[in-house]
Amino acid sequence: MGLMSVKKTVVKPPVHRISSREKVGYATGDLAFNLIYQTVSSYLLFFYTDVFGISSAAAGLMFLIVRIFDAVVDPLIGTVVDRTNSKYGRFRPYLLYGAIPFAIMSVLCFTTPGFSDTGKLVYAYITYILLSVTYTTINVPYGALTSVITQDNKEVVSLTSVRVFFSNIGGMIVTYGVPLLVGVFAAANMKTSSSWQLTMTIMGVLGCLLLFYCFFNTKERVKVPDHAAEKINLKDAFEQFRVNRPLVLICLFFIINFGVNSIINSVGVYYITYNVDRPDLVKWYGLLGVLPALVCMPLMPFLYKWMGKRTLLFTTLTFKMVGLLALWVIPPSMVPLVLTARIISAIGTVTAGGLCWALVPETIDYGEYKTGKRMGGLIYAIIGFFYKFGMALGGIVPGLILDRFGYVANQAQTPTALHGILLTTTIIPAVFIIIELVAIYFYNLDEKEHKRVVAELEARQ
């Protein structure tokens, strides 16, 4: 009956054209998140071990515990978000009211009170947990906002490409700007800890203002009936795993992909500082990790149309793996080749990362098609759970491996420690990328099937 109703009632799924202003407005939200959370992802482990004085093993374990805790909270927040009904909409209010707490907690994470070793660890746990929960409370509705801005797949890809473009601008600002600012403040005879705190204050204020801009320049168009939202609860997450195969595969992709990215980002500063022995290149190495986004993201809608999602993901992940494995064989002294391999890997990283976010809204459509409930917040929270669990694994793996190979902060490293850093930078991420390729092979929601699903949903209304 469903297919018959589609043929009689709807020929094409609905199209919601989005203005360039709104696309930019939405994208500034991800720019804001990256100014803050990319700093945390890239530098917090280094800050804890080399500035705050926490051991690498203790810091790595903390990353695992905090991120798992945060991931468990995600579905709870998702159900609350899906039940929200305000004059500003279902998802946008969280951007307005969460921006200031998010900025404050980010500064506290990079603050170093003069506590004992135990006190430092307790302080780090508390501030990192609060930052992570605050991040989740605004990031889950921000991600779900895509699904109510438009249901047109091409517009979603375009919107996501602009979002990821701005996200990577944030990444460039962080990877180049954070070490630069810390160095400038240190050169002004400021303590290292104070340099980091002031740098994070700048990032936090900018992020807060950008979240406000995102709130005022977006609109929720796809309406969800209030009675449908009231029926959503936590057990619906388990139902989604039973009937929503695309969601299951996307979750697997997220846990691996962003776990790998977390490993690469965390270890990159160690690799350049100790293996390459060029700490002055840390900002450039980080910048080259996101610079390809300036070319790749504008091309993503064209590449998506030309290659299709599955072929495009296979191609980009292959680039990512080839670049990482090249670092395994390139001598660290050959800096130009090291930086070239970084660019090759980054081309795959930024494109695959952008495309995977574009796939999430269609899993929301598919979930509604299978269950009759539209659960944008809950599904983004489920995605967030696996995203953060991957980040947790990516956080603990470098800390434990560095400790296992005898890494000691702020001194010349032994050959064994250097080998551990290189292994964590190259071979370990490459193994996980192979698993990603297998997961994408089984993804069954192609462009034609998604159009049929959206058309069926429109017919039901």
TrEMBL record:
Name of the molecule in the record: Symporter YnaJ
Q: How does it sit in the membrane?
A: Multi-pass membrane protein
Which InterPro entries has this protein been placed in? Answer: MFS_2 (IPR039672), MFS_dom (IPR020846), MFS_trans_sf (IPR036259), Na/Gal_symport (IPR001927), Na/Gal_symport_CS (IPR018043)
What keywords does the record list, in alphabetical order? Cell membrane, Membrane, Symport, Transmembrane, Transmembrane helix, Transport
Sequence ranges assigned to domain Major facilitator superfamily (MFS) profile in this UniProt record: 1-448
Provide the transmembrane region boundaries. 51-73, 94-116, 122-145, 165-188, 194-216, 247-272, 284-304, 311-331, 337-358, 378-401, 421-443
Protein's organism:
Paenibacillus physcomitrellae
- List locations, semicolon-separated: Cell membrane
The record, for CDD domains, names:
MFS_MelB_like
Query: What's one Pfam family here?
Result: MFS_2
